[in-house]
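Entry for the shared binder. Reason: the reviewer on the internal report wants the predicted structure included alongside the sequence.
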Amino acid sequence: MSLEEEILNTIGKTRDVQYSSGELARQLNVGKSTIKRHLDELINKGLVIRKGMGKATRYTLAEVSALAESLPQHYLKQASEAEQLLAYLNTPLTLRDITGYVREFVDEYIPNQTFLLPKSLAQTLMEEGRMAGQQPAGTYARKVLEQLLIDLSWSSSRLEGNRYSLLATEELFRSGTPAGDIDAVMLLNHKQAIEFLVDSVPQFGLTPALIRNLHSILMRDLLPDAASLGSIRTKIVNISDSTYIPLQVPTILEELFNEIIDKACQIKNPVESSFFLWVHLAYLQPFEDGNKRTSRLAANIPLMINNNAPLSFLDADPTRYAYAMMGVYEKRNIALAVDLFELVYRRSIKKYTVTLEAMGIPDPFRLRYREALNQAIGTVVLDRNNVDAVIAEIGIDEHDVPRFSTLVHEELRVLDVFNCARYRLTMGQVKEWVDDGRPQ
């Protein structure tokens, strides 16, 4: 072990003690000048920070200090456990335990009897995020779809290292033209995957096939072998910067994958189910690549089914997210994951509640003819049919035909590639219709 690793290991053992250079020199049996030189190097690398001056100078791990102090007490419910986990994860890889998949983590979970989130927190978040009134599954997500497409696509891609800004993402979605780079592909895949969920979840619910289709959309053109899209992996995967070694047996991977989906379906509280999916899909690593992004979008499925606010991860700090995942991978410790989840979901609840309020009270006429409007717009765009002929074929009540016709014409007037998802139309389909002169 190098001297720098020994210094980091010593400082990282506890958050309650901050060391002077003299104390470190005595503990490590090294000259004080040598210790100071290495401490300066570690400070320059951003791994250690210096506090105080002169004889009061003390040293602590920079990342542990910064992260621990940045977690508000409102969100840090298990401060000592979370800080201990942070301290452990900040020790060098060579000092951390090599760990594998422990199936008891999911096997011993009994839906509605055992809980990952504190039970009171899950109940509170469910009540705060629930849409008022009795609405069909998926209504909440569809109402905020245009904002959700940008928020979730950008934030999830950003957590994967995507370089696009939020504004650049909006422009990409508005133009509908791939920029020809991997980052653009990743973002467009996210957009298509979210649209898939909004359309499919109300009809099919949470199933293994739906999750596998979700993965296939997210990783389209990003995996070298198309056969890997949506397939339970047969290859070995490794987690960078972690001592965790995922399970490698395909038959057991599929068995556990199905068990996770089955248990998530049984969980009555959609927020607990969301957290369960997020944690366990990432921990299992069932696919060759793209597991974390799949787990983030999958976490929205129980929320969609129960008309709770979607989870966009919009304010998730990449470093804090990485630590939360590593805590699950290496220690099956969810303390950091719970704090992060509560933070980002409360933010999502607030944002989409405001978004709904800004929309005002829904027009009863539009709600009554919602599916008829979807059908009319789709038929005009895809089949180039005349509006009057389409309305006659749909069979609108005679006294409502004039108002419905006005509504269809107005919607077609503003329809474009950046707002077509609400009518289950692709950007390409709408672009062709617009280029043809908007025939109606």
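Summary line for the report: Residues 335-359 form the longest helix (25 residues).
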